[in-house]
């Protein structure tokens, strides 16, 4: 590392606000508004430091509709990674850093609460609303990626239990998980009406699934991650609960600008870049990754393209 590079590294990381920002963005992709709330700072101050970090090549930004989200992206060269390791280790006993992480947890809880409120409100009416997805074909493709019948599957974000019922009809045993009690009530009524006994309903969050390690043979999240506060955590959880050799399948939309979906369907994210989906599976330690892109499922509402992604937990 040259003296000039070393000077740039130290100058950039000498400011405590920039260090606090990097520590937060290492943990989670965040919008300016969320960073303002966590740090208790004005937008002008946060934006100024973000601009410096972006110019240094330490963060990346991603537009999601009318929002811009930032994440840590340390360069492989120039001494940034080594220096950041030292800086980060110094934060372990830092009281300000601890308060920031607690505030970040509250901000992520607020994300999840907005989605939970939406689903608690729509409850059993969700079956009518979700028809706008026109996703029966993708649901079938997602099922096709799963293991053979007679094995156990977790349906993450089961909603009213449509997918769980389909899986049970195919002979699979299903653990259906949702954080909304109203959704689970609707699912329970549907399953009882069809006398499907191979489905167990559990209330819980996708980022902390109410399952033991390696409890099931496969995990499926169908049109769910766009509602989650932290999709990457959910993928790691899905990988945790499947047995060695088990499959994780995610079906959702590729990054788009259909802002109406926030208002009408309560989504948190407007889809995801395929490279981001790939990174989720890699970070979760999943192998044999495969992703298929499917163009707009219906021309009636100009729906964005979707994807079916899968990966396998190593033996």
Description:
The chain has 13 helices and 10 strands. With 315 residues, it is α/β, with parallel strands linked by helices. The protein folds into 2 domains: 91 residues, Winged helix-like DNA-binding domain superfamily/Winged helix DNA-binding domain (Arc Repressor Mutant, subunit A); 190 residues, Vaccinia Virus protein VP39 (Rossmann fold, 3-Layer(aba) Sandwich), CATH 3.40.50.150. The chain has a 7-stranded mixed β-sheet, sandwiched between helices. A 3-stranded antiparallel β-sheet has the order 1-3-2.
What would you say about this model in short?
This protein has 315 residues and is α/β, with parallel strands linked by helices.
Shape: elongated
Amino-to-carboxy terminus distance: 41 Å
In what order do the strands lie side by side in the largest sheet?
Answer: 6-5-4-7-8-10-9
Q: How many domain regions?
A: 2
Please trace the helix and strand order, writing H or E for each element: HHEHHEEHHHHEHEHEEHEHHEE
Strand portion: 15-25%
Quick one: biggest sheet?
A: 7 strands, mixed
Q: Write down the overall mean pLDDT.
A: 84
CATH architecture field of the largest domain? 3-Layer(aba) Sandwich
Number of strands: 10
Radius of gyration: 21 Å
CATH class of the largest domain: Alpha Beta
Oligomeric state of the chains in view: single chain
**What share of the residues lie within helices?**
40-55%
| Poorly predicted sequence stretches spanning 5 or more consecutive residues | none
